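Hello,

Our lab assistant flagged a job as stuck in the queue for most of the afternoon. It eventually completed. Since we weren't sure the result was trustworthy after the delay, we are filing this so someone can double-check. Below is the sequence as submitted and the structure that was eventually returned. Let us know if re-running is recommended.
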Amino acid sequence: MDAADAPDVLDAAAAPDAADAPFDPSSPGFLADPYPAYAALRESGRVHHYAPTGQWLVPHHADVAALLRDRRLGRTHLHRFTYEEFGRAAPPPEHEPFHVLNDNGMLDLEAPAHTRIRRLVSQAFTPRTVERLRPYVHGLADRLARDLAADGGGDLAARVAEPLPVAVIAQLLGIPESDRPLLRPWSGAICGMYELNPSEETAARAVRASVEFTAYLTELIADRRRKPGDDLLSALIAAHDEGDALTEQEMISTCVLLLNAGHEATVNATVNGWHALFRNPDQLAALRADPDGLIPTAVEELLRHDTPLQLFERWVLDDIEIDGVTIPRGSELALLFGSANHDPAVFDAPATLDLARRDNPHISFSAGIHYCIGAPLARMELTASLGALLRRAPGLRLAAEPERRPNFVIRGFKELLVEM
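-- returned structure --
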């Protein structure tokens, strides 16, 4: 079947089960709980065209996992095609500061540029580097949880989930404490561009944040060149391989990528995870009864159960075929992580939160060459904050039903009010 002959996902004849649970990222109901819509997509096929964004939705775990490793796809097409050759319009000139910043990060590059940058970053961002942070991470998590408990509760997002990864990434990079309040607003503004069809207002905020973030890091890099320290930024400056080194822009884009990914993924994984625990009191009780035994598998299950990054996009660089449907070069795939993580072909009772789940090949950190380089640090942070809150706030409970952020791709809450 050619792409032109493929039915649209909104066609009731193509997806009869979707009538009761339509895929509609603009709907509050869908944003509150997208998982029934994902089930309908999986039941009605392996690939669906979604007219509002012009993307092809891929909902099954096996397909998502395979396509993340398929070199006929790419995070960019510019290493092989111009915009005109690829049949795509170039971004508006006024968006250039965002795209210069974003497009020079390794998450949005392909080989050979991606290979070179990831190799150089890996020299600096080593397992030993991450491991050295363990006392700092656990000490800060304990202090944040203790203060929340001492106040009888509050907004778990603002008091624990947000400050922990912000401080940890800033500590890793060597960003002075006085400057750290700047980071989260810049990160939030830039990440708004990763949603489907971002508005011009969203783009303008992202451009401003890109300009300010770039200017700040340019000055900080210049300072580290003069006075190297024992931090990741100094290590990135020093990283060389067979005469190669990171350019100034590549360093800036790498720092922003680490900050943004570190903030958004870990913050939302923490808040989504605690919301899931409050909604499953039997699982929370089991976790409180055996924290040492359950925390390792609980972290993985919470990442799977309500996935913080719901969608990852890929450009089709060469025609591919999925289930008899030809997807032509120039198309865009939307790989649905949230759906893949609830695929019953891979996970027993996927809608059930099971903190003791052992067989858990979730793809919340992606796969292939773009597997999250910060995954070990994210796991450390999630383990530390979960353990600290269980220890310091054993009677923690939900104080009010939280409101979801009006986002689809990066899934989280505006706040999570808790009490003792």
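-- support follow-up --
The delay was a queue issue, not a problem with the job. The result is valid. The domain at 3-419 is CATH 1.10.630.10 (Cytochrome p450). The two ends are 58 Å apart (CA to CA).
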